[in-house]
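quick one, 151 residues, struct below
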Amino acid sequence: MVEKSAIRLRGHHLDVIAIHYLKGLESRTERAKAILYNSLFNGPQIALKARSIVDSMESDLNLQVQIIGGLDDICLHECPRKEESCNRIEDDEVTLDGYGLECGRIYSSGELLEVIRIYKEKTGSDSPRKRLLERVAKAYLEKRLMEENKR
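---
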């Protein structure tokens, strides 16, 4: 049974949560950079909502977090990109598969933060989606460099 106070998150927002959480562990400066970057990309309301969720998860490691496949607590909080990105399940699948999590399941915030920490330790990347994007960018740049060298 899901408590009323449970946080509802979809896969691709776990990436946002991971970045806020991990940067917050590094330093106050890195935490501020994560909020600023997220503000520029998603808007200040979303950045502050994500930071608020991380703060709640850190302060109560038993807080229930339900992984859902639809509009979540971040999407429903004035998300400016709700229509374009909050309906793409591919991003959710990349994240959930990378973390080994299941849609529809309820986790404690402590479990999720531990999964995020372990993923960072094993891969060196903040999140599965960020890791995928880094690989795609690297492959693209390598291809462009090879094309340039042929000329």
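The chain has one domain: 7-150.
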